Amino acid sequence: QVQLVESGGGLVQAGGSLRLSCAASGRTLSDYGMGWFRQAPGKEREFVAGISWNGLLTYHVESVKGRFAISRDNAKNTVYLQMNSLKPEDTAVYYCLANSLRNWYRPSSLTGMDYWGKGTLVTVSS
User: Fold this and answer.
1) 88-97 confidence digits (pLDDT tens)
2) Residue 96: phi, psi to the nearest 5?
3) What are the angstrom distances between the C-alpha of 94 and each of 8, 70, 122?
4) What is the DSSP string of the chain?
5) What are the b/e assignments for 49-74, b being 16+ CB within 10 Å?
6) Which partner for 100 in 19, 91, 111, 113 could form a disulfide, CB atoms 3.0-4.6 Å apart?
7) C-alpha span between 48 and 91 (Å, rounded)
8) How far apart are CA 36 and CA 19, in angstroms?
9) What is the C-alpha separation between 15 and 88, in angstroms, rounded?
10) Under 8 Å between Cβ of 63 and 49
11) What is the DSSP string of 24-55?
C-alpha cells in the first residue's frame, strides 16, 4: 500500500505562486495514476488535476486551467502541483491521491482503489 505525504502549502498573497509536492513511499509511484483535490472550509472536496502513470495524460479543472500545472517525477516518487496566479478562492486544504488504475487521470466510472494523503493547507490572502 502506498503512503502519501503532501508539502509546500502556506500563506501567500493573491497573484503569488506555490509548488505543492506529494511524496510517495511503500510502493513505486509509477504503479499509480495521481491527482490533486482540494477542500475549502465548509465545502466538499473537489478534484483539481490529475496525471496518468507516465505523465502522458493530464487534466485540469476549468477553474485552474492556465494557472495550475500537475507533473510527476517517477524517479523521485513525487508528484507536483505548480500553482501560479493564486486567488483567494484557491484557499483550501490540498490533498494528494493515488489511484491504483495506472491510466487514471480524472474521476470517472473506470477507477481503481484510492489512497489519500493527509493534506497541506494553502491560504491565499487578498
Assistant:
1) 999 999 999 9
2) -95, 140
3) 10, 13, 7
4) --EEEEE--EEEETT--EEEEEEEESS-GGGSEEEEEEE-TTS--EEEEEE-TTSS-EEE-TTTTTTEEEEEEGGGTEEEEEE-S--GGG-EEEEEEEESSTT--S--SS---EEE---EEEEEE-
5) bbbbbebeeebbeeebeeebbbebeb
6) 113
7) 13
8) 12
9) 9
10) no
11) EESS-GGGSEEEEEEE-TTS--EEEEEE-TTS
Taking the C-alpha atoms of residue 111 and residue 53, their distance in angstroms, rounded to an integer, is 13
- Total count of residues recorded for the chain: 126
Cell of 63: 477553474
